[in-house]
Amino acid sequence: MKAKLNLLLPVVGVLLAAACSTPAKTGLLRDLDYNIPEDAIPAPELRLKMDDRISIQVFSEQLELAAPFNTAGVQVEGDASTLLSATYGVDARGEIDFPILGKLQVEGRTLDEVQKMIADEINRRGYIKDPVVKAELENFTVTVLGELGQMIIPVEGNSMTILQVIAQLSNQMETAKIPDVMVIRTVDGKREAFRVDLQTKELYNSPVFYLQQNDIIYVKPRGLKLSNGGDLFLKILSPTIAAVSAIAYMLLWSSR
Predict the structure, then answer these.
(1) What does pTM read for this prediction?
(2) Cα separation of 82 and 59, whole Å?
(3) pLDDT digits (tens, 9 = 90+) for 108-137
(4) N or C: which end of the chain has fewer CB within 10 A?
(5) Alpha carbon distance 49, 45 (integer Å)
(6) Residue 202: which domain range?
(7) CA–CA dist 229, 36 (Å, integer)
């Protein structure tokens, strides 16, 4: 009898220890070595896609010459006047309908290329000599789904990495399956899924390390979601653990 109890009691101890444990934190970039420089890939320039929205301003030393190209109008503050930017949507043909110049093909171009194209066309047609054009992407957002929550994150500027997104949502990392993160991206009108392993330095070479507008990040759960000392584990197994413990205690008492 005592021999059986000696085998049973360690099992009970293991169950109790497991119930009170929490999952170990999973490290990022585990294979990144210290003091060993590696080539850093610069952020690629964003290229415009269908359904993008861009704001465009045209500037000139003579405000009245630039005004027709800025359909949002002129804002007057005291003695100063400033041109307001207008927003244009990229249609199914990859074009925007720009004042005076008409339809312009912008899909697949960078913002710098769009700025130069518009400035060159205005200058070529003789409307303004040496105009300055400023274009900005208005819909740079990424969507996060899965274990890190459900939200849409707006991006300021023209660059964001997947690590910057993870850093904003790190409170749920303990239960996230970070070796198998999915990034869904629309490429040439087709959705493509990329697998990302946040534990390896090869992440830096991934085509989705630098995010693009409308990317979707899906983080899978690692398993049972435990919190505060394994509450879910206790809810599932606590009746069994309690029964086994009670039987062990009774047998131990009766064997004395």
Answers:
(1) 0.68
(2) 10
(3) 999 999 999 999 999 999 999 999 999 999
(4) C
(5) 13
(6) 141-221
(7) 39
